[in-house]
UniProtKB/TrEMBL annotation:
Domain Fatty acid hydroxylase: 175-298
Chain's gene name: FAXDC2
Protein name as it appears in the record: Fatty acid hydroxylase domain containing 2
Domain of life where this protein originates: Eukaryota
GO biological process: one example: lipid biosynthetic process
Length: 332
């Protein structure tokens, strides 16, 4: 017993040292990423900048017209850009996915399903209950939270200021938003997998071991605030972002989390294999980009699977489940 206690005392400092080392590596990689972004901004991005500038006068003129129309009522523009526009993208995309999940139309889409044999079709009662929760989270939590943030964002910089952001600044903001989202989501998500918090809070989201797009926002209210909302809204607050940047970022965040949960590895869309594996195995792949999972070793099992080999952008129409099939199951 004494020997075991001694070994545990020796192991604890080593574990803390490993965690601290991983955090330093993460800071180094994130910082290096920002430097590389700046370094390459004068090459390929220069071409895109010229295209942006060519249409910039038109965009600026339309924005000034909107400001003139809503002069003195800029909060209406804020509501449209941060709530209505992202919500429209979310439900339009998920509406198409729900047709595929419930009616199994078009027929070919089932070839792209990640977990074969699951949700064919989706359980109607379970789906209705999940949609009610998603609507509650959106209207009773997200909307009030975004409205409450308006005066806080204005302290950092008026989101409805007259001048639109430059192309380089816009890309830099998106990069920073993405990195902040990765860090906050990874650690809040991993914390929610603590046995106590998982049982009381996060287990709700994991009722779907084979996820579909709309359940990306199916979560306990505490989780919705801590893991779904805060990692997304903190970046624009810190950067004092323009309303146009906020609208694009919120819309992208909703589309990306929908893709991650959709259950289909579709052509020309980001791979959902990483997060789909998390729903399947629970204790792997906690992040969004996978960077912090690599640093903390929470993707080791995933890297040993065929799903890891399929975790890439599909640039053709042949499903990766056909070109990189799972190994045959062993017979007892």
């Amino acid at each position: 017993m004494k020997g075991e206690a001694g070994s545990m005392r020796q192991e604890k400092p080593k574990q803390e040292e490993r965690i601290w080392g991983s955090m330093k590596k993460a800071a180094f990689i994130l910082g290096s990423g920002l430097l590389l972004l700046v370094a390459f901004s004068n090459s390929v991005l220069g071409q895109l900048q010229r295209f942006w500038d060519a249409s910039g006068c038109f965009q600026q003129a339309q924005w000034e017209r909107l400001l003139s129309t809503f002069e003195g009522k800029e909060w209406i523009l804020y509501i449209i850009a941060t709530i209505l526009v992202p919500g429209l993208f979310f439900w339009s995309f998920n509406g198409l996915l729900l047709v595929a999940d419930t009616a199994r139309k078009p027929n070919f889409i089932s070839r792209y399903r990640i977990q074969v044999g699951q949700n064919e079709p989706v359980d109607a009662m379970k789906l209705r209950q999940s949609i009610r929760t998603v609507l509650f989270n959106q209207f009773m939590i997200s909307v009030p939270m975004v409205v409450f943030l308006y005066p806080i964002i204005k302290v950092r910089g008026d989101p409805c200021r007259q001048e639109l952001p430059t192309f380089h600044w816009f890309l830099l903001e998106l990069a920073i938003f993405t990195l902040i989202n990765e860090v906050l989501f990874y650690y809040s998500h991993r914390l929610l997998h603590h046995p106590t918090l998982y049982k009381k809070i996060h287990k709700k989201h994991h009722e779907w071991t084979a996820p579909i797009g709309v359940i990306s926002l199916y979560a306990h209210p505490i989780e919705h605030v801590a893991s779904n909302m805060l990692p997304v809204v903190l970046g624009p607050i810190l950067m004092g972002s323009h309303l146009s940047s906020i609208a694009v970022w919120f819309s992208l965040a909703l589309i990306c989390t929908t893709v991650s949960h959709c259950g289909y590895h579709l052509p020309f869309l980001p791979s959902p294999e990483f997060h789909d594996y998390h729903h399947l195995r629970f204790n792997q792949c906690y992040g969004v980009l996978g960077l912090l999972d690599h640093l903390h070793g929470t993707d080791t099992m995933f890297k040993q699977t065929k799903a890891y080999e399929r975790h890439r952008l599909l640039l053709g129409f042949t499903p990766l489940s056909e070109s990189i099939p799972d190994p045959p199951k062993k017979m007892d």
